[in-house]
Every structure is written in C-alpha cells, then in structure tokens.
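dumping this here before i forget
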Amino acid sequence: MQFVENAPDAVLATAKEMLDKGLVEGTAGNISARMEDGNVCITPSSVDYTEMTIDDLVVIAPDGSPISGERAASSEKLLHLACYQAFDDVGSVIHSHPVHATMFAIARRSVPACIDEFSMYVGGEVRVTDYAISGSAEVGQAAVKALEGRGAALLANHGMVAVGPNPAKALHITALVERVAHIVSGAIALGQVHDLPDEVNRSFADVYSLMRMGI
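structure:
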C-alpha cells in the first residue's frame, strides 16, 4: 500500500502550490494523501487555500468517518476514498478545476495523447467519466473506471482528478494535463489534431506503468 510520509505537510504545501498555479480558485478543489496507518489526510471544506494551516486539515478513516480535525472533510471525500480503495499504488489524490481541462470535461471530450511526455507521465489519453452529481459516491465510481491505467481523468461537467504516489507527483500530472488541454484546444482551432502513433503511445504507456509501480 502506497502512503505518504509527513502527509499533512505535503498536503498543505501542495494545496497552496495548486492555487499558485491557477488550477483552482478560492476554496474549490481538494487534495488528500494516504497515511502509513491507512487513514487519509484531506483538505477541509470551504477554507481558502491562502489562509489554510496544518490545523485546518482533517484525517478520515477509509470508510470516511472522522479521526481528527475540527473542520468538516472536503465534500468530495468519497471521490478520494474510492481511488484509494481501488488502487493500492496511489498515495495521493488531487481534484482540481483547471480551465482548459474543464472545457474538455464539459465538452465530454477526452484529452488526446499527442505529446510524448503526456503518455509517459499520464499513461495515455485522459478519459471523461460518466456524469455524476458532485460529492456523490457515483463520482468516485465513475472516476475509478476512467482512471484504470491512467494518472488522471476528467470528471464530466466538473473538473479533473489526478492520482500519484505523493501530492507533488499528482500535482505534476494535474499541471501537465492542463497544459496539454490548453495546447490541444489551440490545435483544434488551427486544424486537425494528430495523435502520436499507436506504437509510440504504447511504448510510453509502458514507461508510465513501470514508473507507477516504482520500477
């Protein structure tokens, strides 16, 4: 089971960096990390990232019940818990609302694997989930299906979820998908978007699989 050392420090630092990168606004989005004991440290609901401190973070059990913290856990905690339950190799989950990736989520259009590093770090095209109401268990179920073999998925009409061994790696995937979504949206305006050849994507996806296993 993948876990994150010093999870609260990593979650807080990454939450603030996520805001600095423009991947969320105000109190939107959420970050979590799995702790060594199997519990999950997660950002609270409705607290501005600029003002958030370690004391604002919440620890919840794998079933969602509160362990510690004075605030309510993120309203999207079921999304995070579903990812941890489905993938033992995931140590961190980030849900964000980046502008260009969310455009693809609203259009119900996957972000294609058309740049070398994309497949290497994400595993291939970023799929769009079936629609589910925010905060529901169905969001998590849909995300798990779309995340199979991938580091990220688009949440239909909502935003994005990314997974990784730790918050820093999950944030890197989030930023990379947003960058490629921005590039692809421009390429669509210019004309046809060309995916990488299938054999190249398979090769880079294999690299992603090895990296995800820590090899």
